[in-house]
Design goal:
Blueprint: H1 3-27, E1 39-40, H2 47-78, E2 106-107
Antiparallel strand pairs: 1-2
């Protein structure tokens, strides 16, 4: 299997999981808490900007893992149960035609 085909298959699995998890949470009425964060933005980037964004998203993934490990350690000490939380990030070439959003975004973030 070539790298491009493998990436396409992984992308399909990731999108499927994100859509399934998101719709299940929405239908269960769980997308209304104060810490909810959903955002999207369409931007026009040069090659360097795409690389910088990919690097930033990898850093965010690594930081998410650090947070998970620290949180699990606190949960073990406190005997509390964790709050199941789904997290993810996107950065892909747009497949539809249209203008890039010049700097604006759509977000549920309250901070």
């Amino acid at each position: 299997m070539d790298d491009a085909k493998t990436r396409q298959e992984i992308a399909a699995q990731a999108l499927n999981a994100i859509i399934a998890e998101g719709l299940a949470s929405l239908r269960a009425g769980k997308m209304n808490d104060d810490d909810l964060h959903l955002s999207w933005q369409v931007v026009s980037l040069d090659a360097q900007g795409r690389r910088e964004l990919a690097d930033y998203q990898l850093e965010s993934l690594e930081r998410t893992e650090d947070i998970r490990v620290a949180s699990e350690a606190r949960l073990r000490k406190s005997d509390e149960e964790g709050i199941p939380t789904f997290t993810g990030a996107f950065g892909f070439l747009r497949g539809r035609k249209g203008r890039a959003n010049s700097g604006g975004n759509r977000s549920t973030a309250s901070k």
